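The aim of this short unit is practical: by the end, you should be able to scan a pair of folded records and say something sensible about each. We start with the first protein, listed as its amino acid sequence and then its structure tokens.
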Amino acid sequence: MAITWEERLTMPNQSITIRTVQSIKPDPKRDVYVWDRRLKGFGLRTTPTGAQSFVFQYRVNGGPARRKTIGPVGSPWTPMLARKEAERLLFQVYQGIDPVEAQREEKRKRESLNVRAYCEKFTELYLKQNWRGTWKAADCTLRNVVIPRWGTRPIHEITRADIVKVMDDYSDRPARRKEIHSVLRKLFNWATDRQDIEVSPLNGMKAPKAVPARRRVLNDEELVALWAASQEAGWPWGPFVRMLILTMQRRREVAEMDWCEVDLTARRWTLPAARAKNDEEHIIPLSNLAVAELERIGPRNSGLVFTTTGTTPVSGFFKGRVALNNKMLAYMAERRAQSGGDPDSVEIPNWRLHDIRRTGATNLQALGVPVEVTESVLNHISGTRAGVAGIYNRYKYDAEKRAALDAWDAKLTKLCANQRNRRSVTFVG
């Protein structure tokens, strides 16, 4: 801002020390200024109320005089520290840089480069363009892991120590740990390519060891227990888990199911390409149990099927699975006691929601369903549907998929029917 003589009273130049600060008396009508005799532009301002602050006055390339407040007298601004800051500002002026404008630019940069804003930009400009079928999972990692930790910090201030802390926090979840590392590596490499940071904090950092492929498959007893547990889980967890079992689709795909994708008359669910992992539309035939489940929920023209808010899909998968596991243990313990066994001996090996998908696929194979049909049910591009074969073989196996899921429906019905005399396990429809 421009400086006018009317607004200030200038005292004789003197070295600005603690003694100087203490000796200046306020003028009731105007600000009092003392300029340092050794450092050009470095000064002390005392207001009519007695408030004191260190200031720096300068001209850039012969332009008008400007004044920048360094900070109020007191912690942390001592005369010595304020002098060092004035020296830094003077050096900027000698380089033709306006300290006030430089500060504003730094503020703008910090706001645009804070981790929250940067992650949002990364999702729009990189993830959605390059990760397509999996970008939502990566975005979820950013929102649930990265932003809560570093959201207000500039991206260039994130250090190796910050990364190590996150990795340590997930040391007991190796698969999740590796996923987080992968997303962070892409984020900081992207920032480096854009020259928003000089070096990625992950440079030279070894990636977590590859996690062995999971092979967990729920046996028939566990499957029945899971169905029974889902009946006690309430809305929306119960119907959501049963739909996972009945359709064998990916967790997030089922969680984000929309009524506009469902045709109960034709008994099918059409997963749009935008939500499919392989970017191809996928038709899932609905068995009798699946149709009955959706009819009980109450079909609508549009909107999320599994939601409590109306706008966001069911979430909290980890907590939900833990609750289901506890209900499964109670169910199996009761059954064990009914058969004369020791209920305390019941154990359920660790399982995840994704294991439901593997369980369904394994059962289809046991039912004699061809591999290529099983892969089509899962919408899994590998084996018979990968490479050149997949390019030229565009057959969708719609009839075969329906027959396979109907066979799975029949097996589930039979499994639970065999347990009805010991404990109620019912199906809708």
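Turning to the second protein, read its sequence before its tokens, just as you did above.
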Amino acid sequence: MRYHPIPASVYKQNRTHFAAQLESNSLAIFNSNDIYPISADSTLPFAQHRDIFYLSGIDQEESIVILFPDAYEAKHREILFLRETNDHIAVWEGAKLTKKQATELSGIETVYWLSEFERLFQELSTQCNRFYFNTNEHYRQSVETQTREDRFIAWCKKNYPAHLVGKSNPILQKLRSVKAPEEIEQIQQACDITEKGFRRVLSFIQPGVWEYEIEAEYAHEFIRNRSKGFAYTPIIASGNNANVLHYTDNNQQCFPGDLVLMDVAAEYGNYSSDLTRTVPVSGKFTPRQKQVYEAVLRVKKEATKMLLPGTIWKEYHIEVGKIMTSELLQLGLLDKADVQNESDEKPAYKKFFMHGTSHHMGLDTHDYGLLHLPMEANMVFTVEPGIYIPEEGFGLRLEDDVVIQSQGVPLNLMSSIPIEIEEIETLMNA
């Protein structure tokens, strides 16, 4: 790994908190992600399943974690299974984790090779009444591929049909939504790397550059700072491209007078950051661009103040919508008739601001969190209002990552990343 891992004690604590939520005499299983094929012998780079990483810190393919708090033998209450290395694998792929290294990373004392899994699982199955399976229940999930977890669940139900079944994901949704201090430090590191990338491109952007060239500048800066690269597929959208919310082609040239919206951020140690900035290709905003920019920035600042313990996500978005409506009226994009004719299902502001303002963030860019529960201290949220005006040839979004505090306004993890118009223009023209 190129990143500095967090202490094993954090993962131990995560496992303790998870195990405390299980029904008695239950066993929970967590599988690594697959390595996905492209064609021939080509594969996508391995990315660890965030749940097994949260519980173990193990960032290696084909790993399995078993948590069985009521196991007869204490050594079987936490078990890690690993792919066994050999001389051939060491030469062709690089050495895999040893049992000692895995224990140091995870804090799990009992480590077996994968070849022993079925034998030991059979033994443990006779001691438990219930299996906890880990399915993807994120509110944005749309999975069409059968995963390693899916195949295991099917195998387990076929071979152990008499066992009761529980769900791990609701437990993890709650636990993962509140970050430990060490997790926040990893997110902060990802934000700091993102800042380096943003400052780098400010001096690079000018009329004539291509969106993919800007993307390349970010990639260079991220990787040279111990990141694997982008936390998500980057959006580098100049001109009218910014009005496509998930524009990722990044293949157009930047022209004088245009804005370029950049929704791009680094990961660090499997933790995400999430940044959006919109800057003028020519280094100076036009009066109209300034007008819209300041409106978005005001919405962002007011929205941030509302991210407090006890806030309900849905109610928060309703209040942000009211603020945005006021700004759109001032900009002349809405009139009183638009507001009078709106409905709860179709508020007038949605014509120019179609997406949500905030989402949980952490190990996943759109991280776990149960939206019907009140916000809590040490949850990390994005704040990302935008105004999109195809008729005027630009879209504008601003986004930072913040940590909810027990008292007072959130801590902005991106407070040092330039966002005010004057600072951006000064840096672009230095």
